[in-house]
Write a structure and sequence with these properties.
Low-confidence stretches: 321-325
Strand order of the largest sheet: 7-5-6-4-1-2-3-8-9
Strand content: 15-25%
Order of helices and strands: EHEHEHEHEHEHHEHHHEE
Number of strands: 9
Structural class: alpha/beta
Number of helices: 10
Mean pLDDT: 79
Radius of gyration: 25 Å
């Protein structure tokens, strides 16, 4: 580590965030200035907002902040909405050659920016290449969200995915880890699963999740379920193995039932009841369709990966000296 101060870039994915962006920019500006005054980071450090195809005035606000202070505020405009994970990856990979370290955080600032200091100190003093921001509790979540979120992390662990419990995408990453991230080319992104695969020395900073100060969540139940399924199918083949084992178990039960029916037949007892037969047919039919669907999900991911389409397209990049197209 040299004596030069680190140049920090705070990467903030945004989608229809005009309600929260003024307050977000204000708080992050104040925090960056404080870190600069405390000699933790370089005065060339700044904030990069990534507009993920917003339909409101998000990009107009980002452009205005950049014009007002081109060193502190930068912006990346994607050509269309590509999803949170792609927008975040775009911000990290686009800015990595312009800084020494990044911190990614959502625009609503429910993640506590006051732990920036400790994250940076862990990187400088302890050599942590990646520092995870981890929630110490979930008091601000509804009971439903708390239960489903904790269930998701538990299922991911059960399926063998190396994932940091109660960690979203609030993290510090150094130059080495950012360069290593470039080597991961998959289209089906789940950064919470990819980052732990990078290796390197890691640290953890705990914080209490804050209330959203404006706007609404961009992750309703439908999106959360899709994101969860994306993570499971992108990092574990155990669902397919489960189907294989289940199929073997059902086949074994069917052999036992055949023997049972033969015994009943030769002892003079007849099997009655169409209900049990119909229920069995529906159950097996549903299981077959479900199994085909899970296998098809994996085949679909192979199809998307094989096409190797770009994960995002940058329409505008505002950084330091102006607009680079």
């Amino acid at each position: 580590m040299t004596d030069e101060l680190l140049k920090l870039a705070v990467v903030v994915p945004c989608y229809n965030e005009e309600e929260v962006l003024p307050e977000t920019a204000k708080r992050l500006k104040k925090k960056i200035n404080r870190l600069v005054s405390e000699k933790l980071i370089s005065e060339k450090s700044g904030i990069v907002f990534v507009d993920d195809g917003s339909k409101d005035k998000t990009w107009e606000l980002i452009s205005a902040y950049h014009e007002e202070n081109p060193v502190l505020f930068g912006g990346i405009k994607l050509s269309k909405n590509r999803g949170h994970q792609n927008a975040l990856l775009c911000g990290l990979l686009t800015i990595k050659d312009h800084c020494d370290v990044t911190i990614s955080i959502d625009a609503d600032l429910q993640d506590d920016i006051e732990i920036f200091d400790n994250m940076i100190k862990k990187h400088i003093n302890e050599g942590c290449e990646i520092v995870y921001g981890v929630r110490s509790e979930r008091k601000t979540d509804t009971a439903f969200k708390r239960i489903t979120a904790q269930g998701f992390y538990s299922i991911m662990r059960l399926l063998g995915v190396d994932i940091v419990y109660n960690h979203a995408d609030f993290r510090l990453m150094g130059k080495m880890s950012l360069n290593a991230l470039c080597e991961y080319r998959e289209v089906n992104l789940f950064l919470r699963g990819i980052i732990p695969l990078l290796g390197f020395k890691t640290g953890v900073e705990y914080y209490a999740r804050l209330e959203r100060f404006a706007g609404t969540s961009k992750y309703p139940l439908k999106k959360m379920l899709a994101f969860s399924f994306q993570g499971i199918t992108s990092f574990s083949t155990r669902p397919i193995r489960f189907i294989t084992n289940l199929g073997g178990m059902i086949f074994s039960i069917s052999i036992i039932m055949i023997i049972y029916f033969f015994v009943r037949h030769f002892t003079g007892h007849t099997v009655t009841g169409w209900s049990s037969t119909i229920v069995s047919l529906w159950a097996i039919g549903g299981l077959i369709l479900f199994s085909i669907g899970v296998v098809g999900e994996y085949i679909g991911k192979i199809y998307l990966e094989a096409k190797q389409r770009p994960r995002y397209q940058i329409e505008q990049f505002l950084y330091n000296t102006g607009n680079i197209e």
